[in-house]
Write a structure and sequence with these properties.
The chain has 203 residues and is an alpha/beta fold. It is 35% helix and 20% strand. It has a domain of 140 residues: Alpha-Beta Barrel (TIM Barrel), CATH 3.20.20.70. β7 and β8 form a beta hairpin. α2 crosses α3. The longest helix is centred in the first third of the chain and has 17 residues.
Length: 203
Amino acid sequence: MFRYAITDRRSVKGAPSQSPESDRFAGLVDQAKRLAAEGVDFLQLREKDLEAKELIGVARRIITAARAGSGDLRVLVNGRPDVAIAAGADGVHLPSGPEQLTVGQMRRLFADSRAVISVACHSLDEVKRASGDGADLILFSPIFGKLATDGEEIAGVGLERLAEACRVAGGTPVLALGGVTMENAQACVEAGAKGVAGIRLFG
């Protein structure tokens, strides 16, 4: 089962309120070390508010921490192939949306043919497109209900729709995202998911 962690420096241990201002990202670096030691497969750097220069610096620190461990933690950068390439990341994650680059365009940007491209999908049509385009991983969400940042309840699509997404994806691994916990992760796998993804799940 693939395990795919997503960063949020405000909620990780060692967040800014607990770290000196001179090193606001110590918590993310420590998280990468821990996840590598635990054998987690992927870590998506999702700090969308950072400028490119700062994000590259953070990515390099996280990649160094991930590779120093005994595991095989691969670091992907959310939505920023330029940052991923400059930092030497293992790949990139494509958010959903018509304005995003395609998987094929991403492939052409990376000199390394082994670069991992994961794609966010919220509908079966998006799953079919991502699979057909050659995505390495599909993050399908939200599986279970969750609270949005504004406090609004977001309804989950449920395990049945997850199972449909897995069938539509064919041979492309689908990871369950959204409200996934240690308690319901196995149900996602039984529905056909090849793994689980989340922020708090691995925080």
